[in-house]
Amino acid sequence: MISFCGCLTEKPVPPEVNLAKTQEFNLWRAGAPLYLQEPFSRYQEALNKAKDDLIRVNSKFGWFRDYKPVQTEYIQVLRQGDELFKLLEIEKQRRALKVHERMDRLRERLQQLDKFTLMINDGRVSRGSLTKAEVTLGEAETHYRENEYLASEEKLKEAEIYLAEAEKRITPVLSRYTDTGQITRWKKWANETIEESKGKRIYSVLVIKAEKKLLLYKNGEPLKTYRIGLGQRGLSDKQRSKDHATPEGKYRIIAKNPRSRYYKALLINYPNEEDRREFNRAQKKGLLSKTANIGGSIEIHGGGNEGITYGCVSLDNIQMEELYNLVEVGTPVTIVGAVDGQNNLSSVLTVIQDGRAKEETP
């Protein structure tokens, strides 16, 4: 009868097993599954195989267990994990730099849009989107400071959407000020008005929306320059009643009101024949409702040059007083968007497009 002596003892589990368990947890906590999905997946495959092999060894009687092959596996897993930590640090540094650069670009775009939308009345509709973008950028910066780069990236994507919304609202307005055909038309009107002033030796008024100024000519020469306010959608051409846009075209003063609601006022003949033709054409094309009205009562009036009108052109009262006393009924009044392709608003659009291009460049 064979007996087993009691001097045989079970072999201890290799210390690498617990080390690997700790390493896996630390990698998970450091974000390896998020930042290094494929490398971490391969690491887990190797670790799971080592765990399975350990289970098979542990299923044997204690004195028949051979941990050396399993120990070798775990050593390899630990080395693989150490490499992951190195790669993770490099990846986080890369992400941090990328997030920081993108935050700077988006912050610059936000500041530019904020400045531009305050500069142009039409941009006020974009303010809500810009506010959301600013809040979201703040959240992205908080995540960045806490080394949560993936969360920061998601917030930056969200901020980009809000900025794009704001840009989308004002780009159609600004695009008119880069349209060479439109610029040529405006310039022609302006030149004709100046020539009329010169030829008839009279006063004439030229309003340039992009520069927010009114120029008074006498005998074809500039005499006075006044800063002006425009309608809420003043940079757009008026199409119908209550659209708050300021009309563009060649007009004349048809009445002077010394006791206007806005100090003093000069009424122009909007709508003129060309305005009516454009209005009827738009209705036939379905661009305007059949029930829409063309509107009227467009004036140059006082009340301040920083205000927002319903479509009129406004001046400070002192300047309005001066202009009112100089011009007469019949004085030509021409309103244009710009007289030069390199104007204040075309430069705004260029900055917006450049900012978008930088963001789209990988």
Report what the structure shows.
The relative contact order is 0.10. This protein has ten helices and eight strands. Helix 1 packs antiparallel against helix 3, helix 3 runs antiparallel to helix 4 and helix 4 packs parallel to helix 6. The longest helix is centred in the first third of the chain and has 52 residues. It is of the alpha+beta class and 362 residues long. It has two domains: 175 residues, no CATH class; 161 residues, L,D-transpeptidase catalytic domain-like. Strands 3-2-1-8-4-5-6-7 form an eight-stranded mixed sheet.
Please report the distance between the alpha carbons of the first and last residues. Answer: 79 Å
| Coarse morphology | rod-shaped
Q: Mean pLDDT, nearest integer?
A: 89
Rg calculated over all Cα atoms: 36 Å
* Residue windows where pLDDT falls under 50 for at least 5 positions: 1-5
**What structural category characterises the helix and strand content?**
alpha+beta
Summarize the amount of helix as a percent range.
40-55%
**Main sheet overview:** 8 strands, mixed
